[in-house]
Amino acid sequence: MTQQTLSAATVQVPSVMRSTALLDPRTKLLALFLINTIAYGTGSLLAQFLAAAAVALLLATLRDRKPLAIYAITYAVSTALYLALPHLITGWLPALLVAVGFWVARFAITIGYFAYFLLSTGPSELTAALATLRVPRLISVPLAVVLRFVPTVIDELRAIVDAMRLRGLASSASALALHPISTTQHVLLPLLASTSRIADELSASALIRGLGRPERPTTVVRLRFGLADAGMLVFLGVLVAVSVMNVGVSWSFR
């Protein structure tokens, strides 16, 4: 084998991998705290709209647009319920729908941002971010395990549902909801067995990686703030200012 062949066959592995996400995980953690605080706070309605718009923009950066569509529809419908319905219809049923829409809109912001965080942040990136922030291992290790556990459980659930459809046991989601006993037997029991196996595998993986040792672990992920992080920090500052100053919006219906 010639020297050129050896050079071509040589694979160069970089010693440090750079995060490919739009935002630094540390910026995401700060946004997670502030956006959820504002979503469930009693401050400005404008601040909640800005937080909802920020979540929509972040979800739009993902390759899969399904989370964005689900979030946008859920938030738009629930917001319309609690803002427009009281001006159109009165009674106990509209009042109940207003309360449901009020809380669903806030849960949509939280779940939407968590979906973005989960889909755009790898466990190694989260571990590196928490290590640089000097977060105790008692907190950082469970968070990293959860970030690996949740996507695996979702994939396992999809595989179980696909197997049920191939066997003719579940034609749609409504069929699963209309037959709770059959759903428990064919979905929940296999899912519980799978999650137990997944938990054991993740525990073994954590031990192999040395996560239980007292020394601070090293990482191959390089975290670096960029222009997107600077823009996000400015936006979060504006969001907090609007919420604290209680800048509101007025609505009128004829």
Description of the structure:
With 254 residues, this protein is mainly α. Among the domains are: 24-121, no CATH class; 136-212, no CATH class. Helices cover 72% and strands 2% of the residues. It has ten helices and two strands. A two-stranded parallel sheet has the order 1-2.
What is the H/E order?
HEHHHHHHHHEH
Low-confidence stretches: 1-20, 250-254
Helical stretch tally: 10
Number-wise, the strands total 2
Q: Major β-sheet, in short? A: 2 strands, parallel
Mean model confidence by pLDDT: 79
Indicate the radius of gyration in whole angstroms.
Answer: 23 Å
Q: How do the strands line up in the largest sheet?
A: 1-2
Distance between the termini: 84 Å
What is the molecular shape?
A: flat
**Can you give the helix content as a percent range?**
over 70%
**Helix vs. strand class:** mainly alpha
